[in-house]
Amino acid sequence: MQHDEQGPDTGPSLSAEAAADLRALERQAEDDPNALPDPDAPPPPPLPPPLDQELAGMLLMLSKVVAPAFPSIAAIYTEESCGAAGAAVAGVCDKYGWLQGGVGGEYGPELMCLFVVGPLAFATYGAVKGDIEARKPKQAQVGADGRQAKPEAVPGAYAAPGADTVTIGAPVA
Fold this sequence. Notes:
- By secondary structure, the protein is mostly helical.
- The protein has a domain at about 50-130.
- Helices cover about 50% and strands about 0% of the residues.
- It has a two-stranded antiparallel sheet.
- A hairpin with a 3-residue loop joins β1 (about 5) and β2.
- The chain is elongated, with a radius of gyration of 37 Å.
- The termini are far apart.
């Protein structure tokens, strides 16, 4: 049997068995789920949503993006149908080991940003383009013979049936 002795500059010496026990206790203390959390430690990252909810949310978001152009899509892709589709696809993904890191894997936040910001950018582009077109002066319509078409009558103005409208300053035919 070995005795623990205190050396002048090495500290207490332990038997190999005691040292192994000490290391096991230290590891257990580190892994103890009942241990108090370190107040200086950062909070753990949030858990990702289950795959079926993530897929259903993605389908629902895509349907809402496409719905302004295709209104019938909104009646097809409801929360219930997207939830059922997400659960069905998640079952297949679990069976084959697909998308285990979630939709997008390590690029999930970037893809989510694209899904949110992309439609906003497209809508902004369309709105600005429409504003620019609205500011442009109306160009005169040219008829098939190369002459300027007749201007539209002022709403509410009286025009006799069959009468030609006279515009001051218009070229004479």
